[in-house]
Amino acid sequence: MENTSQKNIQSPRGTRDLLPDQIVGWQFLEKVFSEVAQRFGYQEIRTPIFEHTEVFSRVIGENTDVVSKEMYSFQDKGEKYSLTLRPEMTAGAVRAAVQHNLTATGQLQRLWYIGPQFRYERPQAGRFRQFYQCGAECYNASSPESDAELIMFAAMVLQELGLSQYTLHINTLGTAGCREQYVQALVQYLEEKKELLSHDSQVRLTKNPLRILDSKDRGDKAILKDAPILSDYLSEESKQHFTKVLSILEANGYSYTITQSLVRGLDYYSHTVFEFTSSDLGSQDALGGGGRYDSMFEYFGGKHTPSVGFSLGMDRIIMILQKIRPEIFTLPTIDCYIIAMDKTVGEVVQTMAMKMRQNNISVITDLQYRSLKAQMREANKIGAKTVIVIGEEEIKSKQYKVKNMEDGSETLRSEFIG
Ligand code: AMP
Q1: What is the DSSP string of 93-108?
Q2: Which residue minimizes the CA distance to atom 17 of ligand 1?
Q3: Which phi and psi angles does 264 have, rounded to 5°?
Q4: pLDDT tens across 200-221, in order?
Q5: Which atom of ligand 1 is nearest to the CA of 290?
Q6: What structural domains does the chain harbor?
Q7: Is 128 in the pocket of ligand 1 (CB under 6 A)?
Q8: pTM surpassing 0.90?
C-alpha cells in the first residue's frame, strides 16, 4: 500500500482540479470550439476514455514515446486483456468509425471531439498527465483541400478565441514510399556520426530515426544541418499535394512557416503535418497540431480511408486566455438573492424562488438560517443583480421590494409570491 496519510491526500501528480472560477474559461473554449465545428459541418463523437491497448500500440507505433513510455495501461479485472487510458483521440475515433461502418461506402465523414487524455509524462508548466484536447477528423478525404480545411478550422478556433500570437508550422512527410527512401539516406548519414549523437538519438537511430529530426539537443542539431532533407525525396504527387495545401492557405490569408524538422511524435502521419506554436507559452509551446493519416483504417480491419485531423491542447490554450483575456474567467452573475427575514418565512421563500427559476430568473436563497446581515453580505459578495427581503409583512401584503444593487433603486412588485 502507498503511504498516504488520510489527512493529506492530494490529487495525483500531473492532474488538476478545475475549480469553478477556472471552469467558466473552459466552458467558453468548449463553446467557441463547438460553434466553429458547426460552421464547418462537423459532428461530435464521444468514444470511451479507455480502449484495448492494441488500439493505440498498433497505430501510434511501438517505438513512439507515447506508446513506449507514456501509456497508462492496466490489466482488466478479468485479467483477459490489457486496457489503456486514451493518450489521444484519433485512434479511438477511427476504431469507432470502423466498428459502426461510418465510412464504409466511401462517404465523407466529419467528426469532432473534446475530452481528457492521459500520458505518463514528467509534469511541468503546460504539461500534465491528465490533459484535455479538442479536435476534429475528416475521413475519406484524400484531397489537399481537406488538409487545408482542417488547418483553417483549427486556425479559426484560435482566432475566435482571440489568440493571434501563434505560428503555423507546416511540413510534408510525403508517402510511405518517399519516406522509406529518405529514412535510409538519413540513417546512412547518421550512422557515420553515431558516436557524436545524443543518447536518445542513438536509440532512435534504430527505432524511430525520423524523430531525430526534432531533437532539441545542440550537438544533434549541428549534425542535422548537413543531413539529407526529406523534400529532396518527395515524389511529384507529394509535392503537388503540398503545394495545393499551401496555396489554399495563402488564398485565405493564412501565413505559415515551412518547418522541415516537423515530423510529429506519432507514427501514423503521411503527407501534410502541421503544428501551431505560441510565443505566449514557455518551453511547452505547442498549442496543437495534426496531419494526414491514410492507412489507419486498415489497422482496424477497415478499407483504405484517407483521413486528416488535428487536436488542440486545451490546457495550454487556457493558460494563454488567462493572460490575455482574464475577463472570460468571471463567474456568471445571479439575477436575484432572496433574503428570508427569519426561519418562519423559509418555505414561502423557497416557493417564490422556484417560481422565479421556472421563469428563467437565476435565484439564490440562504439555506443555513443566517441572519439578515449575513445574507445581505453574501448577496453583495456574489454580486447578485437584485435583492428581495421577505418577512411576515411581505407575505401578508403579497408585495415586496426589489432592490437594484447597481443603482440602489427599489421597485414594488407582487409576482411570484403567494
Ligand atoms: P499531440 O497529440 O501530441 O500532437 O498533442 C496535441 C496537443 O495536445 C499538443 O500540441 C499540446 O498542446 C497538447 N498536449 C499534448 N500532451 C500534453 C500534456 N502532457 N499536457 C498538456 N497538453 C498536452
Answers
A1: HHHHHHHTTSSTT---
A2: 127
A3: 65, 150
A4: 899 889 888 888 988 889 999 9
A5: 4
A6: 20-175+246-327 (3.30.930.10), 176-234 (no CATH), 336-413 (3.40.50.800)
A7: yes
A8: yes
